[in-house]
Amino acid sequence: MMRAEDGSPSARLFRAVHHLMVALGIGVMLASTVEPLEAAYGVPLAIGFYVAAAFFLLEYGARLYTAPELPGGEHRGTVGARIAWATSFAGIFDLISALPGVAALVRGPQTVLVGFVWAFKYVRYSPGLASLGRVIGNARQAILSVLLGFCIVLLSAASIAYLLERNAHPENPEAFASIPAALWWGIVTMTTTGYGDIVPATVAGRALSGVVMVGGILIFALWTGILVNGYAEELRRLEFLRTWELVAKVPFFHNIGASLIAEVARLLRPRDYPSGAVVVRRGEPGDCMYFVVEGEVEIQLAAGSLYLGAGQFFGELALLTGEPRNATVVAVQSCTLLALDIVDFHELMARHPELARVIREEASKRLHPPARPVAAVAGAHN
Amino acid sequence: MMRAEDGSPSARLFRAVHHLMVALGIGVMLASTVEPLEAAYGVPLAIGFYVAAAFFLLEYGARLYTAPELPGGEHRGTVGARIAWATSFAGIFDLISALPGVAALVRGPQTVLVGFVWAFKYVRYSPGLASLGRVIGNARQAILSVLLGFCIVLLSAASIAYLLERNAHPENPEAFASIPAALWWGIVTMTTTGYGDIVPATVAGRALSGVVMVGGILIFALWTGILVNGYAEELRRLEFLRTWELVAKVPFFHNIGASLIAEVARLLRPRDYPSGAVVVRRGEPGDCMYFVVEGEVEIQLAAGSLYLGAGQFFGELALLTGEPRNATVVAVQSCTLLALDIVDFHELMARHPELARVIREEASKRLHPPARPVAAVAGAHN
Amino acid sequence: MMRAEDGSPSARLFRAVHHLMVALGIGVMLASTVEPLEAAYGVPLAIGFYVAAAFFLLEYGARLYTAPELPGGEHRGTVGARIAWATSFAGIFDLISALPGVAALVRGPQTVLVGFVWAFKYVRYSPGLASLGRVIGNARQAILSVLLGFCIVLLSAASIAYLLERNAHPENPEAFASIPAALWWGIVTMTTTGYGDIVPATVAGRALSGVVMVGGILIFALWTGILVNGYAEELRRLEFLRTWELVAKVPFFHNIGASLIAEVARLLRPRDYPSGAVVVRRGEPGDCMYFVVEGEVEIQLAAGSLYLGAGQFFGELALLTGEPRNATVVAVQSCTLLALDIVDFHELMARHPELARVIREEASKRLHPPARPVAAVAGAHN
Amino acid sequence: MMRAEDGSPSARLFRAVHHLMVALGIGVMLASTVEPLEAAYGVPLAIGFYVAAAFFLLEYGARLYTAPELPGGEHRGTVGARIAWATSFAGIFDLISALPGVAALVRGPQTVLVGFVWAFKYVRYSPGLASLGRVIGNARQAILSVLLGFCIVLLSAASIAYLLERNAHPENPEAFASIPAALWWGIVTMTTTGYGDIVPATVAGRALSGVVMVGGILIFALWTGILVNGYAEELRRLEFLRTWELVAKVPFFHNIGASLIAEVARLLRPRDYPSGAVVVRRGEPGDCMYFVVEGEVEIQLAAGSLYLGAGQFFGELALLTGEPRNATVVAVQSCTLLALDIVDFHELMARHPELARVIREEASKRLHPPARPVAAVAGAHN
D195–B193: do the CB atoms touch at under 8 Å? Predict the structure, then answer.
């Protein structure tokens, strides 16, 4: 399976076509339910539908053929891997997405329900959505507990409302005619949606409504409490995983001993800069130093510019001296840097003298550079 | 009283029947208020009602007979314990749930209000709901303060709206006819429910509405602030209690001295894995090590698989060397593990050399295993 | 001025009468705007009104006479203090509350707007509301920034909606007839109130509505973000102030040196227990130790009960040994305890050997008590 | 470009005129769409419009002429700087704001859409809004992921609702006539707006509505989770930047070594006091000490008052002795102080003995002052 982060040109092209096909499929579905559009453009809409459906059928075949290696499973492309993939969640979902074209040929263009299935195909390409799904998944027990509480309060409120209001709506006898009918009022009220199609008429019913509205807000505020804490944990997790991968790419850290990397990875924060972005500005206070992981930055010194690439570091001078930045640093290409906060910098220097020595020596060299050509400078200046 | 976590087959059977009876009782109540259903299925509904009611009557009797030991109270099953239980909150609630059948026999099938009482019976089996109740309970003072502020703003808004709007609704003279009527508008507006049955007509009244809506959102955002912080505290509490219980089950920690357990318990995080779940994957970065509390895991090494049970640990190699995982670990049965984060791992190793020594020795053995049969390996490999 | 926390019987009586009078005044106001009630009970309502009004007039006189000492100002009861109080916010507010009776005598019973002024009198007695007010006050700049953003988006949305919808409502020509009219639609939509009195009719107008609803939710979620963080800070502040006051009452801490108290105060958490509450339960894991600040607790040991009062501590044994609690502790009277978490306990013991020695010695005495009568035991057992 | 914080009288005057012109422009726009107002005051409204439009045209010219130095770019006022500014976001926005007057002269008074463009001019003067924009900008990926999830659920719900409800609305055949029409119901329901113009009629449709409402609340609670965590990070960032600037202004910190400043800056919290505000009150517990950055404070001792200015500190005595404050401190002028929390104070003293010595010596001098005139006291008393 092509990974969402796969950056090769062919993967990018496939992604573009895939997204276009999903959009086409959904667009056709939306349009074909609008009668005037369907009447005027029935044929092009049908063609659009079959193009999208054929694409997803082909995609299913291709994915099945190249069946990816599953964790701890068979190698890609073997029959075992194909069966494993076909019976996995992704495989079954892709099968469902592949069938509408066949179904339409057999049973006529009942394409309505298909479009929203195709919309889920975007999920595979959205790492952020997976991340949010994990937040909800981790907190599912607490979320369901809130839902249980919501249902109990809802049922109680509907029962009481039924008793209070069942004879108070002569103009609309269906309004609170049964508890199920009162449940409709209850859910519309507790979620503060308030369609206004059923509104209590008695004073007691209105007082109950007020309690239900306020109670609904309180109950759903618990969801926010749960998700805020869950998201904070997910953020920490994502940051650690990303930093770990990046730290391994910086040669500087290779020399400091493997067990220290884990500690350093906790402290560093990855930051992405587009080409042309200003990383630090001359004269600003220095709140962190940077390691270059990918791309190139330009250090704009008075004596001319220096260019630093992957594995080099800059910005440590302002942290050591406490003086403002002595150079502006601009990303020449799109860059990934690892930032080390000033507080963590001093903590790390205190705990690991060998690290401190390397950085201080480099800084000292930069302050009092020996007479050598600029092109030969190995480190970074700021 | 059977505990919610009680996993014996008879307890599980009882729970299933209990939940079924609650669902039956509520279902009957809902259906019997829908006239066509009541007309068509009056007899089966009545039978369903009496079955559920009889079950809850019997349950009350059984619970009273086996009256559980109350904290600091009498032993289970004595007369004292029965009286204590009968007068406790749980006992009185169960009595209320037991009476509808008797009442229906005496006073006719006025069963409407009963169903929602039965819904509360689910609460007893939802530890998550108890946890959320504690969050709200701990923060009740702040929650009530918000409610007081809400009431003051509501009363002020309704008074002003009454002055502005009382003569502006010739088509609906009841709309803002009194302050109590304006309060109904106020609560519907402040909670952003917006039924639309009463809408201000004057420019001043609409401006006031806007202020009331925005003010309502601000006031209820305070609730979220309160509950987010309260839930964060509850999460810490739950985690500590659970870990404490689990740590006591790992023999490895028995040797490190009782006073150290408290510190370790703070650092470990319990994690549950269903059977077949992948705990760590070969090639991933190592962000924590694991202790097995319950269940069994399979370490899939190149040289064959190893099985580790309760009390053993794995995953420490990747933390010590900084290299990726060298084996995939899968839960063979449903497992409870204690995870030690890489950061805390290094902190703990630094502070407690004797602990570090045990883990390093085990790791060293695993890297350079003496020639002995796999079945004799005591520790875990990863 | 009587403080909200003033617990003397006369203060409590005053508070009860005060709250009753506010409730009476508000109740009369509500009732007197309901025509049937006013017609039927005009005289008793008028009497109720004048009773409440007279009470607030008297209260104003009494408060003015005993004018409280203002911070850094004159002593209570002097003319200077009276002028200072009369021109303070509290004084002016009380004057406003005192005038309605006089006004009603002069200008007739136009009492409507008075009631909600009286409602604010509850604020003085709600420390929680003051606390929440401080949260909002501290974050007012950020809250106002959100409001500015809201207004800009609202104005933009209303302008565009006016262009899109002004000719699309033949049945209700006033709906989007001007931008001010569109602003009404905008605020009802952005706050997700949705009265439904004005609903866009064009496709573009509906798409704009969707954007406005989602944008409104996003903008107001910022308020929640601001208040969550502000409330977290307020919680820390409140806890520190309360603990500081309590630590000063525990003799144990008097001996450990003044500068250490500040550190200890950061770690201790005040907890209130009603009479009869169980503080720790035999067999539970020990997650903290306790210092008694006020009240008395009963330690239920196998050998009989012990009673500990203010200044004594208990619960340290389980922390030192890591074993479960060996006694149940119940609050005999309503108690205030200071809890020291197990993690902070070990940190404190490590940093302050002299404190550790005192606690360990006491614990050792309790484990191996010399032969002496129970009544002579000075410390606490758990 | 004049900075928002620029405090010179001319800048303040410009700001006042600028804000007035924005308000005038918006007011004219609102009024000119209200037909009766336009009919009665057409000429003054047109004059108001041209005044505001002329102002913004002039402003554009002035800003272009004095074109500010861009980061890393040309010096102000050069042709290069002018082109750079004119093509920057700010320049293009100001151009758009400048054109309506010209456009109105050419194409007639189609002024409607202009007003809301002018509203964005307030953004430039609101640092808080920039800060909130940064929070949303940093979290844009997660916010967009939530939006994607929202769209997928919305499309699914609309498709299902279309199937369930399309034939259930004989009285309003347009209600669920197509999926696009059902999308309108979906977005109104998922955001809990609930206009009530389209309400499901079938039982299944109502059940779906309930799920959609609750799902919408859950999805948007994720936004809150994202923004709460993002705002917490922004708060830390703002505080650090501000403190760093202030620390540099306190001479006391100049002597403690440059690298220590970074650490101190993390601990200090800036606080602003208006003239006359009470900073500490005699008899209160001491929870922090203060450094004066700007302004003057009065120390109200029994022996008379002392005045401290920029660079001096007070409040350390209560932290060292653990006793309550021995003096009330009032801000004589509007002040900026740096507060050092008691916990951080002790941590800092422990880690930096030379800092501790300076503060202790000063405190000791203050407790046992040598016989010298009050005017000669160099430090601060509290």
Answer: no
